[in-house]
Amino acid sequence: MKAKVHITLKSGVLDPQGKAIQHALDGLGFKGVEDVRQGKVIEIKLKGKDKKKAKADVEKMCKTLLANTIVENFTVDIAE
Amino acid sequence: MKAKVHITLKSGVLDPQGKAIQHALDGLGFKGVEDVRQGKVIEIKLKGKDKKKAKADVEKMCKTLLANTIVENFTVDIAE
Questions:
Q1: Which of A31, A32, A68, B42 is the most buried (most CB within 10 A)?
Q2: Chain A residues with CB inside 8 Å of B65's CB?
Q3: Which residues does chain B have within 8 Å of residue A78's beta carbon, measured at their own beta carbons?
Q4: Are A1 and A46 in contact (CB under 8 A)?
Q5: Which pTM was predicted?
Q6: Nearest CA to A26 among B6, B79, B1, B46?
């Protein structure tokens, strides 16, 4: 089973990496870019076939290790 | 308009960050994790309303700046 975790900065939290990308795009001539935010995506391959358990496990992983819930939001999608 | 870009390492390319996460999860007692791969997600807010042009623009951004196409794959989704 595969889980896909998206981790993004909460709105209002400064994103210097995103700003750097935005400025670089502007410098390369891409006009019309209003905002850029960068996040992470983590793909986890899991044993077992219980989707509900997998989702609960991955949410626990996010809270304990993968995401900093003070400044980041996360979403979990289970596939297969 | 919003574009969401997913950038992931090509299969076969070593992912030490993913391996580090996998070992950390194992150490925390999460068993049954077979593999972990980490990628990036970049959200770009664009001016204009032409979806087709937006997608072409963002694909060009990926090729010139955002992704290293030698070792990374990217996908572009346009929303709104």
A1: B42
A2: 21, 24-25, 28
A3: none
A4: yes
A5: 0.91
A6: B46
The secondary element (H helix, E strand) that includes residue A76 is strand A72-79
The predicted complex's ipTM stands at 0.89
Tokens 């991955």 belong to which residue? A58
Structure tokens at A53: 């358990």
CA separation for the pair B23, B28 (Å, rounded): 9
- Sorted by sequence, the CB contacts under 8 Å of residue A43 that are 6+ apart come out as A2, A3, A4, A5, B8, B35, B36, B37, B38, B39
* Structure confidence by residue, pLDDT tens digits, B29-56: 999 999 999 999 999 999 999 999 999 9
Locate tokens 């995401």: which residue?
A67
Question: CA-CA distance, A79 to B60, in Å (whole number)?
Answer: 30
Give the whole-angstrom CA distance, residue A10 versus residue B56. Answer: 28
Chain A residue nearest residue B22, CA to CA: A44
Assigned CATH class of A2-79: alpha beta
Question: At A38, which amino acid appears?
Answer: Q
